[in-house]
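Hey L., structure's done. Input below.
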Amino acid sequence: MKLLVIGSGGREHALAWKLSQSPRASKVYVAPGNAGTALEPGLENIPFTAISDLVVFAQKEKIALTIVGPESPLANGIVDDFNAAGLKIFGPTKKVAQLESSKTFAKAFMQRHSIPTATFASFDNPSEAHHYIDQREAPIVIKADGLAAGKGVIIAMTLTEAHEAVDTILIEHRLGEAGARILIEDYLEGEEASFIVMSDGRNGLPLATSQDHKRLLDNNRGPNTGGMGAYSPAQIISPTLHAKIMREVITPTIQGMARDGEIYTGFLYAGLMITPRGEVKVLEFNCRLGDPETQPIMLRLKSDLTILLEHAMNRTLDKVEIEWDRRAALGVVMAAEGYPDAPQKNDVITGLTEIMTNQMSTDEFHIFHSGTTFGNQDKNEILTAGGRVLCVTALGENIKLAHNRAYDIASKIHFKGCQMRHDIGCKGIENYSK
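Output:
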């Protein structure tokens, strides 16, 4: 079968790479892809981003199934358009995708269906937002309502910072339309975890647990980003907590959508805060796989992803089980100079070819590309082309060994101004050692 993956990041590289390993996949196209997907055996980039062009391509090539990676196409209705054209596509409709594209929609949904989350209020008027903040305590969280590419969440440690965040978003319009409305949430203490399932509209099939690292700098300092690294499994999610998350978050979400007259088909990502008391609170919903969580999850996946997707499309996810590599996986993001505010581009990346052609087994690791493109193809140059450039992902008998292997590989890759955290997975190593 021919498959199509929509997107150009590390998540899409990992998805396409895993799909290409299936004996059922004759060809995997990536739209538009990156330098990594262009070099990957069995994958082919196509230069389309407009939904109308993608529909035509899928019809012409008789694509058996399309998988949507990023949030923007979902928010723009790609699933609706593919469905209207009689094409199979895995992802939620535009209306359902508001669970991610509008935080106000998501919060109202959670309130309506008794899904645990932080206390909040929503504003488009700066004066009202300032007045609300004066009634609260710091720390406090300011969120842009719409999609802001990982830049729409500000954790204000003081009320002064909170007031400045309101002005930045609602008055200075630094986030454009994404910041036309904001949410102000109570700050939650605890440890974050990512919980991702495949949903067929009736059943939720959990993927391997994972934990990502949002802040730019070590020890969770610096600005929020799209994610600077992740590891799997997340030790914080015990079997008891796993069952609690399914019972209190995932099942009510899928069933709540059905009660609202919508069918949730696609990946469902719950960004969670696990409080010191063991409570589960939803920080955010994403209507797709996380990035960089996907990279270690796909490296651990042993099942045929095409079969899992087929069950999801047939609403039979309750009839299948997923097989995982027992080893841990960890991915460390190498980001461009200036990320996240003003990432630099077109810097030459060195070391990639040498790593992939030496004697290190690629079964133990994979370098997933995010923001890369080709320079002078005669020289086989690969250049930076975005904020997050690469995600070096490795397996190990435990998180510590996966951490060591990933960082050893990353140390051999270079480009100007590279930013990389050095503590990815350290919390997991600490928990593992207890």
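The first helix runs from residue 10 to 20. The chain has 15 helices and 23 strands.

-- N.
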